Amino acid sequence: MRRFALILMLLATPLVAVQPDEILEDPVLEQRARELSKGLRCLVCQNESIDESDASLARDLRLLVRERLVAGDTDEEAVDFIVARYGEFVLLNPTVTGANWLLWAAGPLMLLLAGAGGLIYVRGRARATTPTETPLSAAEQARLDDILKQ
Predict the structure, then answer these.
(1) Could you report the per-residue pLDDT of 37-71, keeping only the tens digit for each?
(2) What are the counts of helices (DSSP H) followed by strands (DSSP E) for the chain?
């Protein structure tokens, strides 16, 4: 029974992040706020949404989202306000516009460049001629024998 209770507590941990005093009275606005919070990154935790994070900055961002929604902002306006204030890093799924397309394309481009470089290297090695060994001249062989005797 204790293990079951512990598992339930661990599974319910992300639900604890939103404090009761943050929850809006209007369930529609609260649902919108929760959906928006799931798409915004906690700037302290960096790999959690502000909906799941217990950090004080995440709480401030959750309150800011709710404040913007209560003020009458649309979902896009609320997110744009936060992005304008904190930068595009606050989005868990950054947009593929502007300079970000280069970041999105960098991984596949580097893979293609590495593959092309490897292919050129392998083909170059296959075409390379093996150096032929020329035998030592009589003078060189005599000099080598003298060095080895010493």
Answers:
(1) 999 998 888 788 888 888 888 889 999 999 999 99
(2) 6, 0
Asked if 78 and 65 touch (Cβ cutoff 8 Å), the reply is yes
In angstroms, the CA 59 to CA 42 distance is: 9
- pLDDT, residue 9, reads 58
Asked if residues 83 and 93 have their Cβ atoms less than 8 Å apart, the reply is: no
Whole-structure pTM over 0.85, yes or no? no
**CATH superfamily of this structure's domain 25-104:** Cytochrome C biogenesis protein (1.10.8.640)
User: Would you state the pLDDT for residue 6?
Assistant: 57
Rounded distance between C-alpha atoms, residue 28 and residue 44, angstroms: 28
Which residue's entry shows tokens 């868990």? 92
Distance of alpha carbon 137 from the chain centroid:
63
Residues of the chain with pLDDT under 70: 1-2, 4-17, 20
Provide φ and ψ at 91, rounded to 5°. -85, 130
Name the β-bridge partners of 49: 41
Three-class SS of residue 119?
A: helix
